[in-house]
Amino acid sequence: LTQPAEGSFLTALTAVVSPTSRAWKWILASSNPFDNPLIDPGCLSTEFDIFTMVQTIKDVQTFTAVSPWAGTFSHPVGTAAMSPFDANWGVVNPDLTLKGAKGLRIVDASVF
């Protein structure tokens, strides 16, 4: 991203952090091993995910329309996924212990 020649600008990032879409597809394009595969990540392939993304964009428009957002801020949080004890995904258990480690808890804003 580049800054405009004049005036102000804002960068807003949105994401569906708990998508219901699960349709990843990797298909061979041909029998030639040097051809790139056809990849379909299946993003926004459910009504819930589309609704969530549209609502997120509307929320960003609402939030950024008010003057307090005229400044700069950073909010680096939510990088460690919490999952049930018996799940094979996520890195943090519901009691905030780190999966696969003993005696270590995650106690900051990185857990989501």
UniProtKB/TrEMBL annotation:
InterPro entries registered for this protein in UniProt: FAD/NAD-bd_sf, GMC_OxRdtase, GMC_OxRtase_C
Superkingdom of the organism of origin: Eukaryota
Name its co-factor(s): FAD
A Pfam family the protein falls into? GMC_oxred_C
Residue ranges of every copy of the Glucose-methanol-choline oxidoreductase C-terminal domain listed in the record: 71-112
The GO terms describing molecular function are: flavin adenine dinucleotide binding; oxidoreductase activity, acting on CH-OH group of donors
- Protein family per UniProt: Belongs to the GMC oxidoreductase family.
Which PANTHER family does UniProt cross-reference here? CHOLINE DEHYDROGENASE, MITOCHONDRIAL (PTHR11552:SF147), GLUCOSE-METHANOL-CHOLINE GMC OXIDOREDUCTASE (PTHR11552)
Q: How does it assemble?
A: Monomer.
Q: What is this protein called?
A: Glucose-methanol-choline oxidoreductase C-terminal domain-containing protein
Taxonomic lineage per UniProt?
A: Eukaryota, Fungi, Dikarya, Basidiomycota, Agaricomycotina
